[in-house]
Structure formats: C-alpha cells, structure tokens
C-alpha cells in the first residue's frame, strides 16, 4: 500500500476511535466507505485509468477498504461491549446486601390467653365448643329470655346483617358468646333424650365456648370486634357454690397467683337469675387493691333451659361470660385494647 492509502486507513482508525457511540461510529464510517466516502470516491476515479493501473491501484484501494472495514468491525464490537458493560453495571445486583430476615412468628397474645383458658377449663372437665359469628336473632337474644322489643336488648349495641331469619328479624354479628349455650344443648340433645328414655341419670352439660364477638363500640377499652368465652355447667346438683369454686380456681390458675380475691356483685342479665358480675382483686403487684370486672355470670334462667329443650328441674346450674381481651390486658399489663388489633409487629413480638 502506498503512503496515501496508509494515511487514509490511519485517519479512519482515528475517526473510529474518536466515535464514542454507535451513531457517531456510523457517521465516521460514512465518511470512508459510504456512498460519497473517501474510498468510494477513489474507486470512481479508477474509471479514467489504464487497465494496468486499474489493477494495481484497484488492488491497493481494496486492501485499504478491507483494513478500514476490519477497524470498523473491531470498533463496533468494542462499543457494543462497553455498552453491555455499562448496562450490567447499572442493573447490577449487590449480592452483598444483607437479606431480608424472616423472624419466627408467634401466637397473638389474645390467642395465648384463649389457649390458656381452654387448657384450664379442659382440665376441669369442660368441653370446648365453637359456633357461628353470624347468628340468628333467636339464638342471640330470644332464646336467652330476651324477647323482641325487650329493653334489656339495648344493653348491647348490635350489628345487624342484611339477611332476615325465620322470624323476620335480621341476623346479627353475635354480640356475645351466650347463644352457644342453647346451640350446644341442641347439638347434644339426643344424649339427654336417650338418658331420659333409659331412666339414666341426666348427663351434665359442661362446656366453654370461646370466640369472636361484635358490638358497635370503640375506644381504649372497647373494640367493635372483641373476644368472649362463655361457660356453662348444668346438672342435677350444680349450684352457685360450684360457680364460685370453678371461677376462683380458674382465676388463680390463669394469673398464677393465690393472692387473688373474688367478689360476686349482684347484677342483671335476662338469661340468669340471680345474676352477678365477677370482680377480681390482686393483693400485690401494680394493680393491687383495685376491683377489676372480668365476667358476667349467674344461675341459668329456667326459660333458657326450656329453650335448650331440657327440663329446668333436671338441668340446673350456672353460666358465665368473660372477656379474654381484658384478661390478656391484666395479665400482661397492657392498658390500650386497640394495641391488640393494630397489627403492629413491634408490639406483638414481645409476646413471642
Ligand atoms: N353475655 C353477657 C354479656 O355479653 C355476659 C354473661 C353474663 C354471660 C352472664 C353469661 C352470664 O353466661 O351468665 O354481657
């Protein structure tokens, strides 16, 4: 190759090297091997030459053209490599970041209380029953000696559901677990009927029914959704004395303290007669000396027993309804009920 071609090739290499992007490179390419590029122009100039000259000059031009194309290809490749490199860098995953830790879960504090309540009552021979949260008016109120339009109904601010029951009265989100008293008796009615037929002693009903309950109520100590646990013990010889023994035992086991006093304070519920609120008092610790209400209770009203399909002379006993949320607050020293239902992991993981 002559010096003329050498410098063209060197110029092309230079121009290609200066092109920093594929578009710049294509522009530089056009100046050499494009339609009116240097090499193309030189080719055109061959036409005027003799055959002999065409041969030697043509060969030299071709050689230069090949060298330019090789340089072009090489530059294209290195630009593409650089682009890929930049992209990889931009999209890089920094695998040295600490992973997201999945901490071990745990039971919700109210669930812990529910489990504890179930264990304690199961150890005293109580069955554990579960029932619907959408309940008929009859089960929630009427069966419990609380007929339509009775003023005692206003003791509970109830959520009604847009479905009418058989009596034309809408279903509700159960405002308490007490409907489980009648439901449970109905579920086991065969056992009692068979005992009557055989002349056997009447089987007892001894059950607790923990679960979710609902009322139109919301502040630091009330939540529209809350928990209750119903208790029912009926038999031929079950008395208020048994209620006192059972409930005192329960509280002392639950709070792991014998230093605990109970008070049965006269009250009113349509489904019990007599009725009592149960208050407890710790003798030591931060709550010492204060009476704290933990349950409603009473001797089951004969009308309720009849609505169970049973004979109130044969099934006598007591019922109670307590608040596991309240028990959880007392046990762990939590003073705002809403903390239980906010779902804040920082609060909940303390109970793990
Ligand atoms: N159901 C009552 C309430 O939610 C609590 C209650 C009181 C339940 C007395 C009972 C009972 O079983 O005997 O306010």
Task: Give a quick summary of the entry.
The chain is α+β, with helices and mostly antiparallel strands and 352 residues long. The protein is 42% helix and 21% strand. The chain has 2 domains: 2-90; 109-351, Bira Bifunctional Protein, Domain 2 (BirA Bifunctional Protein, domain 2, 2-Layer Sandwich).
Q: Which key phrases capture this entry?
A:
single chain, 352 residues, alpha+beta, BirA Bifunctional Protein, domain 2, 2 domains, seven-stranded mixed β-sheet, three-stranded antiparallel β-sheet, 12 helices, 10 strands, 42% helix, rod-shaped, binds 3,4-dihydroxyphenylalanine, ATP binding, ATP-binding, Phe-tRNA_ligase_II_N, cytoplasm
Structure description:
The protein has helices spanning 3-18, 22-33, 38-45, 51-90, 109-123, 137-140, 179-187, 189-198, 240-254, 302-307, 324-332, 345-348, and strands at 127-128, 134-135, 159-164, 170-173, 205-214, 225-235, 260-269, 272-282, 291-300, 316-322. It is of the alpha+beta class. A seven-stranded mixed beta sheet has the order 1-5-6-10-9-8-7, sandwiched between helices. β8 and β9 form a beta hairpin. The structure holds 3,4-dihydroxyphenylalanine. 3,4-dihydroxyphenylalanine binds next to β9 and β10. 3,4-dihydroxyphenylalanine binds at residues 176, 178, 230, 269, 271-272, 296-298, 319-321. One of its GO terms (cellular component) is cytoplasm.
| Residues in helices, as a percent range | 40-55%
Proportion of beta-strand residues: 15-25%
Q: How many structurally independent domains?
A: 2
> Which spans of ≥5 residues are poorly predicted at pLDDT below 50?
none
**Coarse shape:** rod-shaped
Assign the CATH architecture of the largest domain: 2-Layer Sandwich
Report the total helices: 12
CATH fold name of the largest domain, please? BirA Bifunctional Protein, domain 2
- Largest sheet composition: 7 strands, mixed
Bound molecules: 3,4-dihydroxyphenylalanine
Reading the helices and strands in chain order gives HHHHHEEHEEHHEEHEEEHEHH
Q: How do the strands of the widest beta sheet line up side by side?
A: 1-5-6-10-9-8-7
The end-to-end span amounts to 85 Å
The chain-level mean pLDDT equals 93
Q: Which CATH first-tier class of the largest domain would you pick?
A: Alpha Beta
Number of strands: 10
- Classify the secondary structure makeup into a structural class: alpha+beta
What would you report as the Rg, rounded to the nearest angstrom?
44 Å
CATH superfamily of the largest domain: Bira Bifunctional Protein, Domain 2
């Amino acid at each position: 190759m002559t010096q003329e071609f050498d410098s063209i090739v060197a110029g092309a290499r230079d121009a290609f090297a200066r092109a920093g992007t594929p578009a710049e490179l294509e522009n530089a390419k056009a100046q050499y091997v494009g339609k009116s590029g240097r090499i193309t122009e030189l080719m055109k100039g061959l036409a005027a030459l003799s055959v002999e000259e065409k041969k030697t000059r043509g060969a030299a031009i071709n050689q230069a053209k090949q060298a330019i194309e090789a340089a072009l290809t090489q530059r294209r490749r290195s630009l593409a490599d650089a682009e890929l490199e930049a992209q990889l860098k931009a999209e890089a995953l920094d695998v040295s970041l600490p992973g997201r830790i999945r901490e071990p879960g745990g039971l919700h504090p109210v669930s812990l209380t529910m489990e504890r309540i179930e264990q304690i009552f199961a150890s005293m021979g109580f069955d554990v029953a579960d029932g619907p949260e959408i309940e008929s008016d009859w089960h929630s109120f009427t069966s419990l000696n609380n007929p339509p339009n009775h003023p005692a109904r206003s003791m509970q601010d109830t959520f009604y559901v847009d479905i009418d029951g058989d009596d034309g009265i809408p279903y509700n989100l159960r405002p308490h677990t007490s409907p489980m008293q009648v439901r449970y008796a109905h579920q086991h009615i065969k056992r009692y009927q068979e005992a009557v037929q055989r002349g056997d002693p009447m089987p007892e009903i001894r059950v607790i029914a923990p679960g979710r309950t609902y009322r139109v109520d919301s502040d630091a100590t009330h939540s529209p959704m809350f928990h209750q646990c119903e208790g029912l013990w009926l038999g031929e010889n079950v008395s208020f004395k048994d209620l006192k023994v059972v409930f005192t035992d329960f509280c002392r086991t639950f709070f792991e303290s014998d230093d605990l006093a109970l008070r049965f304070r006269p009250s009113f519920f349509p489904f019990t007669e007599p009725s009592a609120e149960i208050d407890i008092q710790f003798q030591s610790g931060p709550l010492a000396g204060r009476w704290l209400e933990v349950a409603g209770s009473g001797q089951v009203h004969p009308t309720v027993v009849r609505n169970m399909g049973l004979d109130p002379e044969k099934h006598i006993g007591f019922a109670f309804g307590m608040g596991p949320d309240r028990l959880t607050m007392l046990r762990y020293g939590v003073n705002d009920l809403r903390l239980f239902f906010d779902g804040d992991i920082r609060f909940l993981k303390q109970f793990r």
